[in-house]
Design brief:
CATH topology of the largest domain: Rossmann fold
Structural class: alpha/beta
Strand content: 5-15%
Shape: globular
Order of helices and strands: EHHHHHEHEHEHEEH
Helix content: 40-55%
Number of strands: 6
Distance between the termini: 20 Å
Largest sheet: 6 strands, parallel
Number of domains: 2
Length: 249
């Protein structure tokens, strides 16, 4: 099977757009609405981002502030679900009000790759409503036509760094990992992509700049100025490296 570059697979939060500040504000709005007295500041939220998934993040924090919380029964799960619903609604409002923009170079790369016949996919741990809110605002109501596959928290319950979402994306694309490039912003995302065999371009942001990105194909400030020719060259470099005798990724 050909190992020429055939598809680009994108993470969403932090990769396509700098969403985390809006997510943080939305979490705090949800906590206030529920009268919990919780407030996440930037340093705390930066640490909590090591836990993938909004519901998982809430529960992880709850266990930190209430160590005796060992029985995760229906009451706890219901509270977490309600908090996440409130948070999602607050995030959607923020996106509609223009609080979140695509990162530099993202839209141009998506459009150029689509026009060139490359297949595009999304592999994320965020929820379908968050994806739709962001991309509808940033790309337009027909955003989904740009992407051959969208895998998210509803279809891949095991969150990054587990490679589930990437393996499912590759299966739905009917492509080997060697024919694709992944785009990530975090260590968990990079670990998930690499575990699925994907060469990965990382564009860190303010919340992830301190992460360890060893194993990335490239680490860039953003995607501005990144051309398809460059991606094809980097991809060929990765394929050559991974197929050289005695070399493993």
């Amino acid at each position: 099977m050909s190992t020429s570059l055939q598809a680009l697979i994108f993470d969403v939060d932090g990769t396509l757009a700098d969403t985390e500040a809006a997510h943080l504000a939305a979490f705090n709005e949800a906590f206030a609405l529920e009268g919990l007295g919780w407030h996440w500041d930037l340093p705390l939220y930066t640490r909590l981002l090591e836990v993938s998934g909004g519901k998982e993040r809430i529960l992880h924090y709850w266990r930190q502030v209430q160590p005796e919380l060992t029985d995760i029964g229906h009451g706890v799960r219901d509270t977490v679900a309600r908090l996440h619903e409130l948070k999602t609604a607050a995030y959607e409002r923020a996106v509609r009000q223009g609080a979140v923009q695509l990162r530099p170079g993202v839209l141009k790369l998506i459009e150029t790759a689509h026009d060139a016949g490359l297949r595009l996919a999304i592999a994320t741990t965020t929820s379908p409503v968050n994806i739709a809110a962001l991309l509808r605002q940033a790309i337009g109501p027909d955003w989904s036509y740009r992407f051959a596959v969208v895998e998210d928290a509803s279809t891949a319950p095991r969150k990054k760094p587990d490679p589930m979402v990437y393996r499912q994306t590759l299966a739905r694309l009917s492509l080997p990992a060697a024919a694709c490039l992944a785009f990530e912003d975090s260590a968990n995302g990079l670990a998930a992509a690499r575990a699925a065999g994907l060469a990965t371009v990382v564009t860190p942001n303010g919340f992830t700049a301190h992460h360890d990105f060893r194993g990335a194909l490239r680490v860039l400030p953003d995607l501005s100025g990144v051309t398809l020719a460059a991606l094809r060259a980097w991809h060929a470099e990765a394929v050559h490296r991974d197929t050289e005798p005695g070399i493993t990724s």
